[in-house]
Design brief:
It is a single chain. This protein folds into two domains: about 250 residues, Naphthalene 1,2-dioxygenase Alpha Subunit, Chain A, domain 1; about 120 residues, Rieske Iron-sulfur Protein. The protein is built from eleven helices and 19 strands. The strands form five sheets. It has a seven-stranded antiparallel sheet with strand order 12-18-17-16-15-14-13. Strand 3 and strand 4 form a beta hairpin. The longest helix has about 35 residues.
Length: about 400
C-alpha cells in the first residue's frame, strides 16, 4: 500500500498491527512512483566536497553515545571525517566537543579514551583541562605578550540529548537541535538510549559512496539475496516494511517472520511491542543509522572518506539490558559478531560493486522502485539540500 506520509504511527500496538497486516497480505508500504537518480549523485567528487561543506559540517550529528563518557572526567578521542575530536565530560557532568589540536603548534593533546582532568600536548607540553581551558605553558615568559586565556581548545557547538552527544563540525555555527530533529525528538525520547550499555565498535573503510552505503539500511528488497544465509535473511520477511517519515528523518519497521503468530490475538501486552516483532531502523539525517532489535541497537555512522567512491563506517552495538554477568557479556559478544559479520561480509561485500556501477556505467541514471520508499526519501532529502533536481 502507498504509505501515508502526513502522519507517523507512534511506537505501540498500532505500529505492530500495520506490520502484521502487511505480512499477512504479502505486500509493503510503497512510494507513489518510481524515481530516477543520476549516476553523478554517487560518483561526482565535487559533489562530495559540497556535501561536506554545506551539509555534514553544518548539521548537528551524533558524534558519540552518552554512555561512552558516562562518568565525570571521562573522555574519548574520535576521528570524524578529517577532524580529530576530543569529547569530554567535565566535573559538573557537562559534555564538550573540542577540536583536538593544540593552539600553539597544532599537535594533538589527547589520544584514545579514558578518564582525565587534563591533557598535555606531546610537542611542547601545553596543558588543557577538560573544559578546554589552557592551564599550563612551559617557558611562559616566551609568550608574555599573548593573552593565554584566549588560547583554549576550540569548542564546537554541542548539545546532549536522547542519549547522544550532538555537535556541529563548524565552530561558531548555529546549533538548533529542536529544528534539526523536529518530530523525531519524541520518537528518540521513547527509546531511552542513555540507559543502554555500550558494548563494542568496529571500523570499516569501503569503496562506496557514503549515500549509497546508507541506502543499504533503508530497504528489505535485498534481504534474501544478500543476507539469505545470515540472521537478517533467516528472521526477516523480505521486501516487506512499515514506513514512516519524521521530517528529514525516517523509521522503517522490518517484520520478523514470527509476526504472523499474532494473527487472531488481541492487541496488547509485550508480544505486541513493535521491537518484539520488527527490526526498527531509523535514518537520522544526514549520516546515522540506528538499527533496533529486541535486545539492543546497532549504531551505524557513515561518512565520506575524501572522495565520492569512498566512505568510513563506524559500526557499534549497545545493549538494551545492561550485562551483569560474564554469560550475558559473552552472549552480547556473539550478537555483535553476527550482526557485524552481516554488515561487513554481506552489505559491504556487495556495495563496492554498486559504486563501480555508478562510476563506470555508461547510462545516465539508476531507477528506484516504489518498494524502495526509504531510499527514495533519502535521495529526495539530500538532493533537495544540495539543490539537485530529480526527474
Amino acid at each position: 500500500m502507498t504509505a501515508q506520509l502526513d502522519h507517523c504511527t507512534p511506537l505501540g500496538p498500532e505500529l505492530t498491527r500495520r506490520g502484521l497486516d502487511l505480512a499477512l497480505a504479502g505486500t509493503t508500504d510503497v512510494a507513489p512512483s518510481t524515481m530516477r537518480v543520476p549516476l553523478s549523485y554517487y560518483s561526482d567528487d565535487k559533489l562530495t566536497d559540497i556535501e561536506q561543506s554545506t551539509i555534514l559540517r553544518r548539521t548537528p550529528i551524533a558524534v558519540l553515545a552518552s554512555v561512552q563518557i558516562s562518568n565525570v572526567h571521562d573522555y574519548v578521542v574520535r576521528q570524524v571525517m578529517e577532524d580529530s575530536l576530543l569529547i569530554t565530560r567535565d566535573r559538573d557532568g557537562r559534555a564538550h566537543v573540542f577540536l583536538n589540536y593544540c593552539r600553539h603548534r597544532g599537535a594533538m593533546p589527547a589520544c584514545g579514551a579514558g578518564n582525565a582532568r587534563r591533557f598535555t600536548c606531546p610537542y611542547h607540553a601545553w596543558v588543557y583541562d577538560n573544559t578546554g581551558k589552557l592551564k599550563g605553558v612551559p617557558g611562559k615568559a616566551g609568550f608574555d605578550d599573548v593573552d593565554l586565556d584566549s588560547y583554549g581548545l576550540v569548542e564546537l557547538p554541542t548539545e546532549e540529548r536522547h542519549g547522544w552527544i550532538w555537535a556541529v563540525l563548524t565552530t561558531g555555527a548555529q546549533m538548533d537541535l529542536d529544528a534539526h530533529l523536529g518530530p523525531m525528538n519524541m520518537e528518540l525520547a521513547q527509546w531511552n538510549y542513555g540507559a543502554f550499555q555500550y558494548h563494542d565498535e568496529k571500523m570499516l573503510n569501503s569503496e562506496v559512496n557514503w549515500k549509497g552505503a546508507l541506502e543499504a539500511f533503508a530497504e528489505g528488497y535485498h534481504f534474501p539475496f544478500v543476507h539469505g544465509k545470515s540472521v537478517i535473511g533467516q528472521n526477516t520477511i523480505a521486501n516487506t516494511h512499515v514506513y514512516d517519515e519524521f521530517g528529514r528523518h525516517h523509521r522503517i519497521g522490518f517484520p520478523f517472520k514470527w509476526i504472523t503468530d499474532l494473527d487472531g490475538t488481541e492487541a496488547g501486552g509485550d508480544m505486541w511491542e513493535p521491537s518484539a516483532q520488527m527490526g526498527l531502523i531509523y535514518w537520522i539525517y544526514p549520516n546515522l543509522i540506528l538499527a533496533n532489535s529486541p535486545v539492543g541497537v546497532e549504531v551505524i555512522d557513515i561518512l565520506p572518506d575524501g572522495a565520492a567512491g569512498k566512505c568510513t563506517v563506524r559500526h557499534s552495538w549497545m545493549a538494551r539490558y545492561p550485562a551483569t554477568t560474564d554469560e550475558q557479556r559473552e552472549m552480547y559478544d556473539g550478537i555483535f559478531a553476527q550482526v557485524h559479520a552481516a554488515v561487513r561480509d554481506e552489505d559491504f561485500a556487495m556495495l563496492p560493486q554498486c559504486s563501480q556501477g555508478a562510476r563506470r556505467g555508461q547510462h545516465d541514471h539508476m531507477v528506484l522502485g516504489r518498494n524502495e520508499i526509504g531510499v527514495q526519501h533519502m535521495v529526495r532529502v539530500l538532493a533537495d539540500a544540495l539543490g539537485i533536481s530529480l526527474a
